[in-house]
Amino acid sequence: MKTCISSVRLAVLALVLPAASAVLAQNQPTASLQEVVVTASRVAGPRESQPFGTSVITAEDIQRSGAVTVNDAIMRILGVPGRQDLFGGGDFALDLRGFGSTSDNNQVVIVDGIRINEADLGGTRLAGIPIESVAQIEVIRGSGAVLYGEGATGGVIIITTKAGRGVARKNAASLYAGLGSYGLREGRANATLASGGFSLDINGMNRKADNHRDNFRSDTDAVSAAAQWSNDWLRVGARVSQDGLDAGLPGALDAAQYQNNPRQTTTPKDKASIDNTRNGLFAEAVAGNWQLTADAGSREKKLRSLFVSSFGSSNFDYDVKATNYALRAVHSANLSKFSNKLTLGTDYGTWQRDVLGTFGSTATQSSRAWYLRDEVTLASTATTLSLGLRTERISKNNSNTTMALADDQNAWELGLSQPLGKGVSVYGRVGHSFRLANVDELGFTTPGLTLQPQRSKDVELGSRYASGPVKFDVRWYRSALTHEIGFDPNAAGPFGPGANVNFDPTRRSGLELDGSYAYAKSLTLRVSAALRKSTFTSGQYEGKDVPLVPRRTVALHANWTPMTNHLVTGGVNWVSSQHPDFSNQCSAPAYTTADARYAYQWQNVEVSLGITNLFDRKFYTQAFGCAGGVTTAIYPEAGRAAIAALRVKF
Fold this sequence. Notes:
Blueprint (H helix, E strand, L loop, with lengths): L1 H23 L12 E2 L6 E2 L7 E5 H7 L4 H9 L3 E3 L7 E3 L13 E4 L2 E2 L18 E8 L3 H4 L6 E7 L10 E9 L3 E12 L2 E12 L8 E13 L3 E15 L6 H6 L10 E17 L2 E20 L2 E4 L2 E17 L3 E18 L5 E18 L5 E15 L5 E18 L2 E12 L3 H4 L11 E14 L2 E13 L2 E9 L2 E7 L3 E14 L3 E14 L15 E9 L5 E10 L15 E12 L2 E8 L7 E8 L2 E7 L4 E9 L1
Parallel strand pairs: 6-9
Antiparallel strand pairs: 1-2, 3-8, 4-5, 6-7, 8-9, 10-11, 10-36, 11-12, 12-13, 13-14, 14-15, 15-16, 16-17, 16-18, 18-19, 19-20, 20-21, 21-22, 22-23, 23-24, 24-25, 25-28, 26-27, 28-29, 29-30, 30-31, 31-32, 32-33, 33-36, 34-35
């Protein structure tokens, strides 16, 4: 009963907070924030009419903040918690709605219309996307299963490049050079060449760093190009990108090692390299009231790694090949009493991983899906009703196990958005999402156990206020999961303790806030905060928190222009403590970090100085172990770091 009452209070708060903001905004300066257009419906549209929460980061936000990767921008500006990737190079495992170690398999990542998630436990690499090429990052909180399919219960990250926006291209170029702490050296080069309906976008970057631990140096390079032609009804083009990472693997530290010397390594000879290649074709056409879109992409990933111990050395190497195809048709109609937008689409994808060596294996996945989503907006009340349905056929196999999956899954969603007055609206949605075991989970289970599909019943209520200098979006959510898939170190495994299992029922619930305020065009404030609970609701872990999920996060970010050509930006991020273990006997401490950046613009030249972890806090975001009530298997984060940079635009 107590939980039910708390949930109701959160839901009511989600509905009334923006309305209260309307009163607070009165009599304030008239600076205004621009309307944000999102593509969460897989076609462009205003965020205000959608029945779900979406946070948007623009290219200007990225440049002002000094973020160096997509992960960095999402964590720094939106306060999304992230855990350090074991391979370094600037990648972090982002967690949109409290899934902990399985967060990557419970959210979808889209780059220019193509899904880039892996079908194993290898993680989705975002740090290889040239940050200067990014036009917009949309973060959908909560299920996107109808439009994006399997594994979208936690949310969707949609990255749109400047070449992928479909707007008129202009001749432009820029050069960037940066030097910083821990041996950082970075260079970026970007150019757009446009003539008539043709354009060519080229982006390149190289980032070298010794980083904050022994044997953690990294060398990242990336290059991308997109060529396209368009007129008033048709756009066609091709894109290609490549990125690579060479990095040392410093290993985990126990508690004593972390306290004595967090810079040390326990694996001084381990190393790895990752190479990615992505190619694609795209086309968009407008025919009367129809908008037609087609995307085709292929992707290759090569991982090579060396692990050295007192027993000798070993390699773990594999190659991944993936293809994705997506077709969409959107019909818009405006009638006297209502308007209607109908989206029809199909997705098809294949994925194959070949593990090399004597004990090699081959894992495959294929999926084919059909979906529709219809939005009806009543002219008299501006009420928007939406209904979405998806059916998806998925097959998975791994040659190192006798188990295989071939299953049909369905997702649905019903949404409502209702304006209440000038700038104020409420919205809600209910739906169903799903996930199947990935190819790694499939092959490491309790003997004789077949993993069941993971299913989630999703509910979200929210309210928005947008007028003049103020914008707020507050939402309450709950996802009730059955047969959630994950690794339980206490389950009976094929070689002893530890196996992938279907957990007893779990629940994600919480309250999220996104707000921004523009004061007299010289100061912009942004806040993102979340209260979340990720708990087991029955079984042996009943009442325990899901591991590696903080209950509270707050991010404050500000842009200040004290005088012409001078810009000061900064932010504070706070993440509460979290448990690395299922019994919740150990804890990773809460941490607060502060960042600051000053930039001076002289004609087409910008010079800047940025500092991360301003107060040199000692903290970590990644830990796996618990022994005798003490957290172990720790991966420390960097201390204070500075970067001086020069940017020239042409």
